[in-house]
Amino acid sequence: MTSAEYLHMAFLLSKKANSKDIRPNPFVGAILVDQNGSIIGEGYHQKAGEGHAEVNAIRNAKEKVSDLSSCTLYVTLEPCSHFGKTPPCTSLIIENKISKVVIGSMDPNPLVSGVNVLEAAGIEVEICILPEINELNSVFTINHKYKRPKYLLKTATTINGKIADRNASSKWISNNNSRKLVHEKLRSSVDAILTTAKTVIKDNATMNIRVGQEKVEELNAIIIDKNLDLLKQENASLNIFYPRTKSKIYLVTDKIQEGVLPDNLEVIQIPFTNGACDMDQLNADLIKKNFCEILVEAGGKLNASMIKEKQIDEIYLFIAPSLIIDTHAINAFNLDELQLMDNKTVLKLIETTIIDEDVLIRYQLSY
Amino acid sequence: MTSAEYLHMAFLLSKKANSKDIRPNPFVGAILVDQNGSIIGEGYHQKAGEGHAEVNAIRNAKEKVSDLSSCTLYVTLEPCSHFGKTPPCTSLIIENKISKVVIGSMDPNPLVSGVNVLEAAGIEVEICILPEINELNSVFTINHKYKRPKYLLKTATTINGKIADRNASSKWISNNNSRKLVHEKLRSSVDAILTTAKTVIKDNATMNIRVGQEKVEELNAIIIDKNLDLLKQENASLNIFYPRTKSKIYLVTDKIQEGVLPDNLEVIQIPFTNGACDMDQLNADLIKKNFCEILVEAGGKLNASMIKEKQIDEIYLFIAPSLIIDTHAINAFNLDELQLMDNKTVLKLIETTIIDEDVLIRYQLSY
User: Fold this and answer.
1) How do residues A154-196 score in pLDDT, each as one tens digit?
2) Interface pTM, i.e. ipTM
3) Strand, coil or helix: what is A349?
4) A296, exposed or middle or buried, with CB in 10 Å at 0-12, 13-18, 19+?
5) How far apart are CA B58 and CA B42, in angstroms?
6) Is the peptide bond before B172 cis (omega within 30 degrees of 0)?
7) Residue B338: closest CA among chain A residues belongs to which residue?
8) Mean pLDDT, range A73-84, rounded to an integer
9) B161 touches chain A (CB under 8 A)
10) Could you give the CA distance from residue B338 to residue B205 in angstroms, rounded to a whole number?
11) Distance, CA of A106 to CA of A112 (rounded, Å)
12) What is the dihedral of CA A88, A92, A98, A100, to 10 degrees?
């Protein structure tokens, strides 16, 4: 078997983890192969704070074999060389005199210089980058590279980009099965939803996760609410305030909140400029709260400013088979700011899916 | 073989014709089958003004067999019963004492009551509608049903429906291969292109047909030009005025044109209301000129008003992987008129095609 084939096996192993259990860590799988090419140890990272993949694979091997000095370790991510919640994996590799390490993706964290440490210890290192590994760990990579959550943006439009009519009515653009997919695939997979008080109030949006006919799950809601409108008495019975036991509402404002808030409500105080909050400060706060991946479901203005601020990594665009010709109907990406053809935002097409008569198009943005 | 199978053979035969040779007639194929199930005659409509499919099939059969009285005629369209450019086919069928006629689609022209005439003459008639036949003849059906050309609308937009930036620059939204498809598939198949003087002037559009790298073909251009701006001296060297030997430019205006126009230029005088021409009158004129199928490539305003006036039958929407967030960038369907969610225009999704990173979505509209 080739290095890529062993690494692909380690990749499949890494996917056994649940993304929410390992946050903010990446998926990592490792296998130990002896000089005959036999797999003698397997491991993957299962839970944040617990053993890394290398540790689990080495432990698994040592149940059977005591001398690993003629083994090769295949690991999907560059081994860590620093003390985090667990000791450095490079030390364990060196201690066990493993002769060769094959690495499937590089760690974006500059604190991790595993390759250098291993080579300095005389261990042969082969780097064999597999695209599927980088793709699986895009959340982790973006968190480190941009010091912010990975943002997915979902919007549902007519064929000419309208998300609502001029009276802001948006019910419904996309069909039942598209909305089901948003709940069961998108909202289910993220750590929180980001929206605005305007959208929450206008749509009386619940922003929970409906799974199948019956089951409802909670979802953390981060709501841009400069003036703390959601704390006004008149908004107290909005759907967003459903009973929460394991999620919270975070109101992003530049006001100082006085008085006691219920347990499930928190205020994130951030400076605003021209009506828009400071995304860098918000992002730092969200990363600290372990919100690694966030779904944006908002109006045309927040959508557009997040694009402009290079905050969006993927777009899930549901195009419904309908048309609103009204100039004043609301566009999905909408700022009163000059953007000329030569300076248009360029996306990368990922895939299209037909859902009844809606067309879901997925795009990626790279910075 | 079943009736549907014989009719499908006749349908395949009908498709041998070139649509432009038979305008304004439909594709029609016919086969004659004897009592043993053997095909003894075949024919299809090849050229407007020449023999109908039934005539050709009967003629073909009679080269071999003189008595057709035990034969069944399978014909993709209800036989005509009136004198057009050729005598009624029903008479020929009756004369030849054909015992049974199987019909694959009904003629939308109320002058054609072939079924009644045949039954009155004691001929057994079976009607077996095949969807592929109706689809192939959608131009003919629309021409008769709505007394107008079939209109295809092509537009290329960003993912939020913009066809140009606020300065009206539209070069380029879609990619090379999408534009190639527009020339080689769409423009090549229609009788004329419909646009506005504004688009022609702003884009200095040629509106011809480029096939491959070298070959250029002419295309009739129908241009809404209320004020005859294109006749102004300053516009005399626009690309639209390329040398024409077999096509014309038609300017649609409410002005009376005085003075002599070049051979390849014609004025269609039509009343206008609120800046929009009377589509019924324009359509009557275009049908008279044998323009059966027309491609609309225009700005957001003409696109939107044609949708509003129920003039568009199909939309070819090219969605490019790009985004312009500017509110003032131009939307593909754009009228300053109220249209609420409950009253949105509903389309039917036909198919999606990926062209490099553009997504082409085809929609149908039914009235």
Assistant:
1) 999 999 999 999 999 998 999 999 999 999 999 999 999 999 9
2) 0.92
3) strand
4) buried
5) 8
6) yes
7) A326
8) 91
9) yes
10) 31
11) 9
12) -10
**Residue A124's closest CA among A90, A98, A91, A92?**
A98
| Token pair 């027309």: residue | B294
Helix axes A3-14, A53-62, angle to 10 degrees: 100
Is residue B229 within 8 Å of B236, Cβ to Cβ?
no
Name the amino acid, one letter, at B25: N
B243 pLDDT above the threshold of 90: yes
- Please state the length of chain B: 367
Residue with tokens 């005591």: A66
pLDDT at B111 over 80: no
β-strand partners of B319: B157, B359
B257, pLDDT greater than 90? no
pTM above 0.80, yes or no: yes
Nearest-Cα distance to chain A for B362, in Å, is 10
Note whether A326 contacts B339, CB cutoff 8 Å. Answer: yes
Beta bridge partners of B103: B75, B127
Task: Return the residue matching tokens 């009204």.
Answer: A326
Dig out the tokens for B260 from the structure: 């002599």
pLDDT band at A101 (very low <50, low <70, confident <90, very high): very high
Percent of chain B with pLDDT over 70: 100
SS3 A359: strand
Residue B292 to residue B148: CA distance in whole angstroms: 7
Whether A141 and A109 have beta carbons less than 8 Å apart is answered as no
Tokens for A247? 């999620």
Residue A243: φ, ψ to 5°: -60, 130
- Per the structure block, which two tokens stand in for A82? 């620093």
Average pLDDT of B166-179? 94
Dihedral sign, Cα of residue B298, residue B302, residue B307, residue B310:
negative
10 Å CB burial of residue A276 (0-12, 13-18, 19+) is middle
Rounded Cα distance, A271 and B37, in Å: 85
Contacts of B364 (CB under 8 A, 6+ apart): B313, B314, B315, B347, B348, B350
Distance CA A249, CA A245 (A): 11
Angle B53-62/B3-14 helices, nearest 10 degrees?
Answer: 100
A residues 256-315 lying closer than 8 A (beta carbon) to B:
304, 307-308, 315
Whether B337 and A331 lie within 8 Å, measured CB to CB? no
